[in-house]
Amino acid sequence: MSYQHILVPVDDSPISYAAAEDALSLAKLSGSQVTLLSVVAVDPFVGVDFYKIAPAITDYFMQAESGAKSRLEELQQSFVNDGIDVQTKIYHGAPAEGILYVADEVNADLIVMGSHGRTGVKKLMIGSVAQAVLAQSHIPVLIVKQ
After folding, report:
1. The UspA domain covers which part of the protein (predicted)?
2. For 5-145, CATH number?
């Protein structure tokens, strides 16, 4: 099967970089367009006004945004160097929700993402973004594991 548009959610983990490398290989084989996505998580239980008055929180989000932009620019360059049509996006909100939203927004027909492989209590406490995306996505999801 040939994919036209691959969505690649990335964070600062080695597994997400491995997923980006796999997506790059797939894009080269199928001539796919790629969207690289970074999600800056926002706590849904805290109002926006709180972030405006809490300097430490504001600083945290500014650093997270800056880190996401740098990560995306670095990865984007590797795709450009291989002649792949690539764009970047930053989504603010819940990770799984953001991935699914952007997949629809860019009309992706494949999501390639890493899974940190958490198990047991860590998975229960932190949750699994990859599992949530896999369960809710209406398009194929390729999970790259460590």
Report:
1. 3-145
2. 3.40.50.620
